[in-house]
Amino acid sequence: MSAGAKQPDETSKPESLLDRVKNLRRLDFEVATRAALATAVPLIILVALGRIDWAAYASFGAMTALYGRGEPYRIRLRTVSVGALGLLVSIALGIGMSVSGASLLVLTLGLLLVIVAGLLLAAAVGLFPPTPIFFVFAYAVCAQAPTPPAEIWSRMLVAVIAAAFAWTLTMSGWLIRRAAVDARTGTFKTLPRQPQVRVAAVVDARVWLAIVQNVVGVLIAGGLAIAVGIGHPYWAVVSVVAVMPPPGAAHTISRAMHRIIGTAAGVVVTGLILLPGPPVGVLVAVIVIAQFGAEILVGRHYGAALLFVTPLALTVAHLASPVTVPTLLVDRVVETALGGGIAIAIVLITRAVANRRNAPDAV
């Protein structure tokens, strides 16, 4: 090598790797912080007003902040708005079911409507996550929570305000990022996700296969949970929707196993939190911290994320409709295993049918 040749920079590779790790963590931290703040502020206000019984509506509205992850702001405007609308419609439908004292048949029809519409909406607009899990969770909890007729509009208003606040937080980085790009500071990671509107998704066979799988799964799981007298049948339903792969995704078993094992561990964590009977302020802190931790981990390891998702879900449900903590924990484990097991069975059957159709004819 000649004396004038440029010497290789021995630190360039480690710095490049470090930069990539920092960028990934920066984006995760940004999303998790938004989600935590979107949840914390409405809940703190409700505590100050003495209306923590409205926490579920604020929490579900705040889930608006979970949409638009990694998207440029011109696209995020669309997806976050659609996500907020889907959540609010699900909450409103659930409240309506609760107030009207809807029969099991009507509740089930409402659930199926949320699943079908949620999957079609997610596929057509490119929502992430591409499943109706948050819509189903919001509908199920709100439909089960006792709602006095006089509080219909108050509870819905809480959800709308929380969603609007989360929407504002999610879009708030636009000016900051634009200034950073103009100044060429390189402070923020490039937002790589570019979902497209795909109206043809409403007639996509893969989307309708996912709809059939979810509908069959929730009907079986919910029916079995009711037949054996488990106190919270909607956990089995939510588990099926959470475990079932999105349209076009690989039909793997690992997600189901991660959910079952992760939920069991999460229930232990929740028990340690709820069994001592902590004050409301501690429960709000648990929800906020769990929201942050779930968003940090969900893109890395689904099972590990459930150590935070489970305390989040159980604490929100407990505030919405309090029951004895041991009953809540046992129901969660049993119904998650039930819903996860049914989802695994449906995935295996779907895979077997697909393999059989693709196999060459025997000679």
TrEMBL record:
Has keyword Membrane?
yes
Q: Tell me the keywords, alphabetical order.
A: Membrane, Transmembrane, Transmembrane helix
Q: What is the lineage of its organism?
A: Bacteria, Bacillati, Actinomycetota, Actinomycetes, Micrococcales
Looking at the record's lineage, which domain of life comes first?
Bacteria
Name of this protein: FUSC family protein
Membrane topology, record value:
Multi-pass membrane protein
Location comes to:
Membrane
Transmembrane region(s): 35-57, 77-97, 104-128, 156-176, 222-244, 305-325, 337-354
